[in-house]
Protein backbone atom coordinates (compact mmCIF):
# COMPACT_ATOMS: atom_id res chain seq x y z
CA UNK A 1 0.00 0.00 0.00
CA UNK A 2 1.23 3.48 -0.86
CA UNK A 3 0.15 4.87 2.49
CA UNK A 4 1.63 2.29 4.83
CA UNK A 5 3.19 3.46 8.11
CA UNK A 6 6.92 4.13 8.18
CA UNK A 7 9.36 3.06 10.90
CA UNK A 8 12.18 5.58 11.45
CA UNK A 9 15.73 4.28 11.45
CA UNK A 10 18.73 5.56 13.39
CA UNK A 11 21.76 6.15 11.15
CA UNK A 12 24.46 8.69 12.00
CA UNK A 13 26.69 10.14 9.31
CA UNK A 14 30.22 11.33 10.05
CA UNK A 15 33.01 13.22 8.33
CA UNK A 16 33.43 10.39 5.84
CA UNK A 17 30.21 11.85 4.38
CA UNK A 18 30.31 15.57 5.25
CA UNK A 19 33.97 16.04 4.24
CA UNK A 20 33.51 14.83 0.65
CA UNK A 21 30.25 16.80 0.35
CA UNK A 22 32.01 20.00 1.40
CA UNK A 23 34.84 19.24 -1.04
CA UNK A 24 32.32 18.73 -3.86
CA UNK A 25 30.51 22.02 -3.09
CA UNK A 26 33.83 23.89 -2.92
CA UNK A 27 35.08 22.50 -6.24
CA UNK A 28 31.80 23.26 -8.03
CA UNK A 29 31.87 26.81 -6.59
CA UNK A 30 35.38 27.16 -8.04
CA UNK A 31 34.02 26.17 -11.48
CA UNK A 32 35.80 22.81 -11.53
CA UNK A 33 34.04 20.48 -14.04
CA UNK A 34 31.29 18.48 -12.35
CA UNK A 35 32.82 15.11 -13.30
CA UNK A 36 36.13 16.09 -11.67
CA UNK A 37 34.36 17.36 -8.54
CA UNK A 38 32.40 14.12 -8.28
CA UNK A 39 35.57 12.08 -8.82
CA UNK A 40 37.46 13.94 -6.09
CA UNK A 41 34.56 13.65 -3.66
CA UNK A 42 34.13 9.95 -4.42
CA UNK A 43 37.84 9.24 -3.94
CA UNK A 44 37.92 11.08 -0.60
CA UNK A 45 34.80 9.26 0.59
CA UNK A 46 36.23 5.90 -0.40
CA UNK A 47 39.52 6.62 1.41
CA UNK A 48 37.93 7.93 4.61
CA UNK A 49 35.18 5.35 4.83
CA UNK A 50 37.13 2.35 3.57
CA UNK A 51 34.03 1.52 1.51
CA UNK A 52 36.08 0.38 -1.46
CA UNK A 53 39.84 -0.05 -1.97
CA UNK A 54 41.12 2.93 -3.90
CA UNK A 55 43.00 0.55 -6.19
CA UNK A 56 39.64 -0.69 -7.52
CA UNK A 57 38.30 2.73 -8.45
CA UNK A 58 39.68 2.53 -11.98
CA UNK A 59 37.97 -0.81 -12.48
CA UNK A 60 34.70 0.65 -11.18
CA UNK A 61 34.97 3.61 -13.56
CA UNK A 62 35.18 1.24 -16.50
CA UNK A 63 32.57 -1.26 -15.32
CA UNK A 64 30.13 1.56 -14.55
CA UNK A 65 29.97 2.62 -18.19
CA UNK A 66 30.50 -0.82 -19.71
CA UNK A 67 26.79 -1.22 -20.43
CA UNK A 68 25.11 -1.82 -23.78
CA UNK A 69 22.18 0.42 -22.79
CA UNK A 70 24.51 3.43 -22.49
CA UNK A 71 25.41 3.15 -26.18
CA UNK A 72 22.01 4.69 -26.89
CA UNK A 73 23.07 7.98 -25.28
CA UNK A 74 25.66 9.09 -27.89
CA UNK A 75 23.43 7.77 -30.68
CA UNK A 76 20.43 9.91 -29.66
CA UNK A 77 22.69 12.93 -29.19
CA UNK A 78 24.18 12.39 -32.65
CA UNK A 79 20.68 12.03 -34.12
CA UNK A 80 19.66 15.38 -32.65
CA UNK A 81 22.74 17.06 -34.07
CA UNK A 82 22.13 15.46 -37.47
CA UNK A 83 18.52 16.72 -37.44
CA UNK A 84 19.73 20.28 -37.10
CA UNK A 85 22.47 20.00 -39.70
CA UNK A 86 20.19 18.36 -42.29
CA UNK A 87 17.48 20.98 -41.79
CA UNK A 88 14.88 18.43 -40.73
CA UNK A 89 14.28 20.30 -37.47
CA UNK A 90 12.94 23.21 -39.52
CA UNK A 91 10.46 20.87 -41.18
CA UNK A 92 9.16 20.02 -37.70
CA UNK A 93 8.68 23.73 -37.07
CA UNK A 94 6.80 24.20 -40.37
CA UNK A 95 4.39 21.38 -39.53
CA UNK A 96 3.94 22.58 -35.93
CA UNK A 97 3.21 26.10 -37.16
CA UNK A 98 0.66 24.79 -39.66
CA UNK A 99 -1.03 22.72 -36.94
CA UNK A 100 -1.46 25.72 -34.62
CA UNK A 101 -2.26 28.45 -37.18
CA UNK A 102 -5.95 28.43 -36.21
CA UNK A 103 -5.23 29.57 -32.64
CA UNK A 104 -4.43 32.96 -31.25
CA UNK A 105 -0.85 32.67 -30.09
CA UNK A 106 -0.24 30.04 -32.73
CA UNK A 107 3.49 30.50 -33.22
CA UNK A 108 4.09 30.34 -29.46
CA UNK A 109 2.22 27.04 -29.39
CA UNK A 110 4.17 25.88 -32.46
CA UNK A 111 7.39 26.60 -30.59
CA UNK A 112 6.30 24.37 -27.72
CA UNK A 113 5.24 21.60 -30.11
CA UNK A 114 8.54 21.64 -31.99
CA UNK A 115 10.34 21.41 -28.64
CA UNK A 116 8.33 18.25 -27.98
CA UNK A 117 9.08 16.88 -31.45
CA UNK A 118 12.79 17.55 -31.03
CA UNK A 119 12.68 16.01 -27.55
CA UNK A 120 11.16 12.83 -28.94
CA UNK A 121 14.32 12.30 -30.98
CA UNK A 122 17.31 13.89 -29.27
CA UNK A 123 16.37 13.10 -25.65
CA UNK A 124 18.29 16.15 -24.42
CA UNK A 125 16.87 19.36 -22.95
CA UNK A 126 19.90 21.64 -23.38
CA UNK A 127 20.31 20.59 -27.02
CA UNK A 128 16.61 21.24 -27.60
CA UNK A 129 16.80 24.68 -25.99
CA UNK A 130 19.73 25.68 -28.19
CA UNK A 131 18.37 24.20 -31.44
CA UNK A 132 14.79 25.45 -31.07
CA UNK A 133 15.89 28.78 -29.58
CA UNK A 134 17.96 29.61 -32.66
CA UNK A 135 14.96 28.94 -34.91
CA UNK A 136 12.17 30.58 -32.94
CA UNK A 137 13.14 33.29 -30.45
CA UNK A 138 13.62 36.09 -33.00
CA UNK A 139 10.37 35.10 -34.74
CA UNK A 140 8.53 35.04 -31.41
CA UNK A 141 9.71 38.60 -30.76
CA UNK A 142 8.57 39.61 -34.27
CA UNK A 143 5.17 38.05 -33.47
CA UNK A 144 4.76 40.38 -30.50
CA UNK A 145 6.17 38.46 -27.54
CA UNK A 146 8.59 40.24 -25.17
CA UNK A 147 12.07 38.78 -25.62
CA UNK A 148 12.40 37.60 -21.98
CA UNK A 149 9.08 35.74 -22.29
CA UNK A 150 10.11 34.22 -25.64
CA UNK A 151 13.28 32.93 -23.95
CA UNK A 152 11.28 31.53 -21.02
CA UNK A 153 8.87 29.82 -23.41
CA UNK A 154 11.71 28.03 -25.22
CA UNK A 155 13.38 27.13 -21.91
CA UNK A 156 10.13 25.60 -20.65
CA UNK A 157 9.42 23.74 -23.87
CA UNK A 158 12.95 22.34 -23.90
CA UNK A 159 12.33 20.69 -20.52
CA UNK A 160 10.40 18.07 -22.45
CA UNK A 161 13.80 16.88 -23.72
CA UNK A 162 14.17 14.64 -20.66
CA UNK A 163 10.44 14.07 -20.12
CA UNK A 164 9.15 12.83 -23.47
CA UNK A 165 10.49 9.41 -24.48
CA UNK A 166 12.93 8.35 -25.73
CA UNK A 167 14.95 10.26 -23.16
CA UNK A 168 18.58 9.97 -22.12
CA UNK A 169 17.49 10.57 -18.53
CA UNK A 170 15.30 7.43 -18.53
CA UNK A 171 18.12 5.37 -20.02
CA UNK A 172 20.42 6.46 -17.18
CA UNK A 173 17.95 6.01 -14.33
CA UNK A 174 17.02 2.62 -15.75
CA UNK A 175 20.69 1.66 -15.71
CA UNK A 176 21.18 2.91 -12.14
CA UNK A 177 18.09 1.21 -10.70
CA UNK A 178 18.05 -1.88 -12.92
CA UNK A 179 14.83 -1.06 -14.78
CA UNK A 180 14.24 -1.56 -18.50
CA UNK A 181 14.56 1.70 -20.43
CA UNK A 182 11.80 0.56 -22.80
CA UNK A 183 9.45 0.12 -19.84
CA UNK A 184 10.25 3.61 -18.59
CA UNK A 185 9.74 5.04 -22.09
CA UNK A 186 6.28 3.50 -22.19
CA UNK A 187 5.41 4.79 -18.72
CA UNK A 188 6.62 8.30 -19.58
CA UNK A 189 4.34 8.84 -22.56
CA UNK A 190 1.32 10.17 -20.64
CA UNK A 191 3.33 12.22 -18.07
CA UNK A 192 5.53 13.68 -20.82
CA UNK A 193 2.54 14.71 -22.89
CA UNK A 194 0.84 16.11 -19.77
CA UNK A 195 3.84 18.39 -19.17
CA UNK A 196 3.78 19.45 -22.82
CA UNK A 197 0.06 20.29 -22.58
CA UNK A 198 0.66 22.27 -19.37
CA UNK A 199 3.28 24.42 -21.16
CA UNK A 200 0.91 24.94 -24.09
CA UNK A 201 -1.90 25.90 -21.72
CA UNK A 202 0.33 28.37 -19.88
CA UNK A 203 1.31 30.07 -23.12
CA UNK A 204 -2.30 30.28 -24.32
CA UNK A 205 -3.43 31.80 -21.00
CA UNK A 206 -0.56 34.31 -20.92
CA UNK A 207 -1.22 35.29 -24.52
CA UNK A 208 -4.93 35.79 -23.76
CA UNK A 209 -4.06 37.99 -20.78
CA UNK A 210 -1.55 40.19 -22.58
CA UNK A 211 -2.59 39.90 -26.24
CA UNK A 212 0.97 39.47 -27.50
CA UNK A 213 0.23 37.46 -30.62
CA UNK A 214 -2.78 37.80 -32.86
CA UNK A 215 -3.85 35.38 -35.56
CA UNK A 216 -6.37 32.61 -35.49
CA UNK A 217 -8.61 34.18 -38.17
CA UNK A 218 -8.29 31.51 -40.83
CA UNK A 219 -10.87 29.57 -42.76
CA UNK A 220 -11.14 25.81 -42.53
CA UNK A 221 -10.15 25.24 -46.17
CA UNK A 222 -7.13 27.55 -45.85
CA UNK A 223 -6.11 25.79 -42.63
CA UNK A 224 -6.11 22.32 -44.18
CA UNK A 225 -4.51 23.61 -47.36
CA UNK A 226 -1.55 25.04 -45.44
CA UNK A 227 -1.30 21.96 -43.22
CA UNK A 228 -1.28 19.68 -46.24
CA UNK A 229 1.41 21.84 -47.84
CA UNK A 230 3.61 21.61 -44.74
CA UNK A 231 3.15 17.85 -44.47
CA UNK A 232 3.76 17.36 -48.19
CA UNK A 233 7.04 19.28 -48.12
CA UNK A 234 8.29 17.83 -44.84
CA UNK A 235 6.74 14.38 -44.36
CA UNK A 236 10.12 12.68 -44.66
CA UNK A 237 11.31 14.38 -41.45
CA UNK A 238 8.80 12.29 -39.51
CA UNK A 239 10.36 9.03 -40.71
CA UNK A 240 12.98 9.43 -37.97
CA UNK A 241 10.64 9.69 -34.93
CA UNK A 242 8.40 7.01 -36.51
CA UNK A 243 11.31 4.58 -36.61
CA UNK A 244 12.27 5.34 -33.01
CA UNK A 245 8.77 5.02 -31.60
CA UNK A 246 7.67 2.02 -33.62
CA UNK A 247 10.96 0.21 -33.12
CA UNK A 248 11.08 0.68 -29.35
CA UNK A 249 7.40 0.29 -28.46
CA UNK A 250 6.82 -2.66 -30.76
CA UNK A 251 9.75 -4.44 -29.17
CA UNK A 252 11.47 -4.90 -32.51
CA UNK A 253 14.38 -2.61 -31.60
CA UNK A 254 16.18 -1.87 -28.36
CA UNK A 255 16.73 1.85 -27.59
CA UNK A 256 20.33 1.45 -28.76
CA UNK A 257 19.28 -0.15 -32.06
CA UNK A 258 16.59 2.50 -32.56
CA UNK A 259 19.16 5.26 -31.97
CA UNK A 260 21.59 3.71 -34.45
CA UNK A 261 18.86 3.32 -37.07
CA UNK A 262 17.71 6.91 -36.53
CA UNK A 263 21.26 8.24 -37.07
CA UNK A 264 21.66 6.34 -40.33
CA UNK A 265 18.22 7.34 -41.65
CA UNK A 266 18.69 11.02 -40.73
CA UNK A 267 22.07 11.17 -42.47
CA UNK A 268 20.68 9.30 -45.50
CA UNK A 269 17.81 11.78 -45.82
CA UNK A 270 20.31 14.63 -45.57
CA UNK A 271 22.37 13.20 -48.43
CA UNK A 272 19.26 12.59 -50.57
CA UNK A 273 18.09 16.18 -50.03
CA UNK A 274 21.57 17.56 -50.53
CA UNK A 275 21.53 19.29 -47.14
CA UNK A 276 24.40 17.20 -45.78
CA UNK A 277 27.84 16.55 -47.23
CA UNK A 278 30.81 14.47 -46.13
CA UNK A 279 32.52 17.69 -45.07
CA UNK A 280 29.80 18.17 -42.42
CA UNK A 281 30.76 14.99 -40.58
CA UNK A 282 33.80 16.23 -38.62
CA UNK A 283 31.95 19.20 -37.13
CA UNK A 284 28.90 17.05 -36.38
CA UNK A 285 30.95 14.36 -34.65
CA UNK A 286 32.94 16.91 -32.66
CA UNK A 287 29.76 18.66 -31.50
CA UNK A 288 28.19 15.38 -30.36
CA UNK A 289 31.45 14.23 -28.76
CA UNK A 290 31.57 17.40 -26.65
CA UNK A 291 28.14 16.63 -25.20
CA UNK A 292 29.04 12.99 -24.61
CA UNK A 293 32.32 14.10 -23.07
CA UNK A 294 30.30 15.78 -20.35
CA UNK A 295 27.75 13.02 -19.73
CA UNK A 296 29.84 9.82 -19.77
CA UNK A 297 32.60 10.89 -17.31
CA UNK A 298 29.90 12.04 -14.88
CA UNK A 299 28.27 8.61 -15.03
CA UNK A 300 31.64 6.87 -14.64
CA UNK A 301 32.67 8.83 -11.54
CA UNK A 302 29.19 8.82 -10.04
CA UNK A 303 29.02 5.00 -9.89
CA UNK A 304 31.73 4.56 -7.20
CA UNK A 305 30.35 7.59 -5.37
CA UNK A 306 26.87 6.04 -5.30
CA UNK A 307 28.33 2.77 -4.02
CA UNK A 308 30.25 4.58 -1.28
CA UNK A 309 27.11 6.47 -0.25
CA UNK A 310 25.21 3.19 0.00
CA UNK A 311 27.93 1.49 2.06
CA UNK A 312 28.21 4.28 4.65
CA UNK A 313 24.43 4.35 5.03
CA UNK A 314 23.40 7.61 3.37
CA UNK A 315 20.13 6.23 1.91
CA UNK A 316 19.13 4.86 5.32
CA UNK A 317 20.22 8.14 6.91
CA UNK A 318 18.01 10.11 4.55
CA UNK A 319 15.07 7.84 5.35
CA UNK A 320 15.73 8.34 9.06
CA UNK A 321 15.85 12.12 8.75
CA UNK A 322 12.77 12.27 6.52
CA UNK A 323 10.66 9.98 8.69
CA UNK A 324 11.83 11.86 11.76
CA UNK A 325 10.15 14.95 10.33
CA UNK A 326 6.91 13.20 9.36
CA UNK A 327 5.61 9.70 8.77
CA UNK A 328 2.83 10.92 6.45
CA UNK A 329 3.54 9.61 2.93
CA UNK A 330 2.11 12.69 1.22
CA UNK A 331 4.54 14.87 3.20
CA UNK A 332 7.48 12.61 2.38
CA UNK A 333 6.61 12.68 -1.33
CA UNK A 334 6.48 16.47 -1.19
CA UNK A 335 9.90 16.50 0.47
CA UNK A 336 11.33 14.34 -2.32
CA UNK A 337 9.88 16.65 -4.96
CA UNK A 338 11.38 19.73 -3.28
CA UNK A 339 14.79 18.05 -3.04
CA UNK A 340 14.65 17.09 -6.73
CA UNK A 341 13.56 20.52 -7.93
CA UNK A 342 16.33 22.15 -5.89
CA UNK A 343 18.85 19.66 -7.29
CA UNK A 344 17.59 20.27 -10.84
CA UNK A 345 18.21 23.99 -10.33
CA UNK A 346 21.91 23.64 -9.62
CA UNK A 347 23.15 20.51 -11.40
CA UNK A 348 22.81 18.51 -14.62
CA UNK A 349 20.39 15.60 -14.88
CA UNK A 350 23.03 12.87 -15.04
CA UNK A 351 24.77 13.43 -11.68
CA UNK A 352 21.43 14.11 -10.03
CA UNK A 353 20.11 10.75 -11.21
CA UNK A 354 23.19 8.69 -10.40
CA UNK A 355 23.61 10.22 -6.93
CA UNK A 356 20.03 10.90 -5.81
CA UNK A 357 18.14 7.92 -7.25
CA UNK A 358 19.79 5.35 -4.90
CA UNK A 359 19.30 7.73 -1.96
CA UNK A 360 15.63 8.55 -2.57
CA UNK A 361 14.41 5.18 -3.80
CA UNK A 362 14.56 3.50 -0.33
CA UNK A 363 12.20 6.19 0.95
CA UNK A 364 9.87 5.62 -2.00
CA UNK A 365 10.01 1.87 -1.35
CA UNK A 366 9.14 2.39 2.32
CA UNK A 367 5.95 4.22 1.44
CA UNK A 368 5.03 1.62 -1.15
CA UNK A 369 5.51 3.82 -4.21
CA UNK A 370 5.67 1.92 -7.48
CA UNK A 371 9.29 2.03 -8.71
CA UNK A 372 8.20 3.08 -12.21
CA UNK A 373 6.12 5.90 -10.76
CA UNK A 374 9.12 6.96 -8.65
CA UNK A 375 11.34 7.17 -11.74
CA UNK A 376 8.79 9.23 -13.67
CA UNK A 377 8.25 11.55 -10.69
CA UNK A 378 12.00 11.99 -10.23
CA UNK A 379 12.73 12.89 -13.85
CA UNK A 380 9.71 15.20 -14.04
CA UNK A 381 10.71 17.06 -10.86
CA UNK A 382 14.27 17.46 -12.14
CA UNK A 383 12.79 18.85 -15.37
CA UNK A 384 10.86 21.48 -13.40
CA UNK A 385 14.14 22.41 -11.72
CA UNK A 386 15.63 23.26 -15.12
CA UNK A 387 13.49 26.39 -15.36
CA UNK A 388 13.00 27.15 -11.66
CA UNK A 389 14.37 30.67 -10.93
CA UNK A 390 17.00 31.80 -10.39
CA UNK A 391 19.36 28.92 -11.24
CA UNK A 392 17.50 26.71 -13.73
CA UNK A 393 19.90 25.25 -16.31
CA UNK A 394 17.69 25.97 -19.33
CA UNK A 395 17.40 29.60 -18.26
CA UNK A 396 21.17 29.91 -18.56
CA UNK A 397 21.18 28.13 -21.94
CA UNK A 398 18.73 30.57 -23.54
CA UNK A 399 20.33 33.52 -21.76
CA UNK A 400 23.69 32.57 -23.25
CA UNK A 401 22.05 32.07 -26.64
CA UNK A 402 20.32 35.48 -26.72
CA UNK A 403 22.26 37.68 -24.29
CA UNK A 404 19.00 38.38 -22.42
CA UNK A 405 19.18 38.99 -18.67
CA UNK A 406 18.84 35.76 -16.69
CA UNK A 407 16.70 37.54 -14.07
CA UNK A 408 14.25 38.82 -16.68
CA UNK A 409 13.91 35.35 -18.19
CA UNK A 410 13.51 33.82 -14.73
CA UNK A 411 10.67 36.21 -13.87
CA UNK A 412 8.80 35.23 -17.05
CA UNK A 413 9.37 31.53 -16.32
CA UNK A 414 7.35 31.53 -13.06
CA UNK A 415 3.94 30.72 -14.66
CA UNK A 416 5.47 27.76 -16.50
CA UNK A 417 7.04 26.48 -13.28
CA UNK A 418 3.68 26.62 -11.47
CA UNK A 419 1.79 24.73 -14.18
CA UNK A 420 4.53 22.11 -14.53
CA UNK A 421 4.66 21.71 -10.76
CA UNK A 422 0.92 21.01 -10.72
CA UNK A 423 1.44 18.16 -13.22
CA UNK A 424 4.39 16.86 -11.19
CA UNK A 425 2.19 16.65 -8.10
CA UNK A 426 -0.45 14.72 -10.05
CA UNK A 427 2.22 12.28 -11.23
CA UNK A 428 3.48 11.87 -7.67
CA UNK A 429 0.08 11.27 -6.07
CA UNK A 430 -1.78 9.46 -8.87
CA UNK A 431 0.10 6.26 -9.83
CA UNK A 432 -2.21 5.53 -12.79
CA UNK A 433 -0.74 8.44 -14.75
CA UNK A 434 2.57 6.56 -14.92
CA UNK A 435 1.33 2.97 -15.00
CA UNK A 436 -1.77 2.98 -17.22
CA UNK A 437 0.10 1.96 -20.37
CA UNK A 438 2.23 -0.66 -18.63
CA UNK A 439 1.64 -4.42 -18.55
CA UNK A 440 -0.10 -5.63 -15.40
CA UNK A 441 3.15 -6.99 -13.96
CA UNK A 442 4.51 -3.46 -13.44
CA UNK A 443 1.42 -2.01 -11.73
Automatic annotation (TrEMBL):
Domain TRAP C4-dicarboxylate transport system permease DctM subunit: 22-433
Pfam families: DctM
Location in the cell: Cell inner membrane
Signal peptide: none
CC terms in the record's Gene Ontology section: plasma membrane
Main location: membrane
UniProt keyword list: Cell inner membrane, Cell membrane, Membrane, Transmembrane, Transmembrane helix, Transport
Transmembrane regions: 21-49, 61-84, 149-179, 185-206, 227-248, 260-279, 291-312, 332-360, 372-393, 413-438
GO molecular function: transmembrane transporter activity
Subunit structure: The complex comprises the extracytoplasmic solute receptor protein and the two transmembrane proteins.
The family this protein is said to belong to: Belongs to the TRAP transporter large permease family.
Job of this protein: Part of the tripartite ATP-independent periplasmic (TRAP) transport system.
Protein name in the entry: TRAP transporter large permease protein
Organism encoding this protein: Roseibium aquae
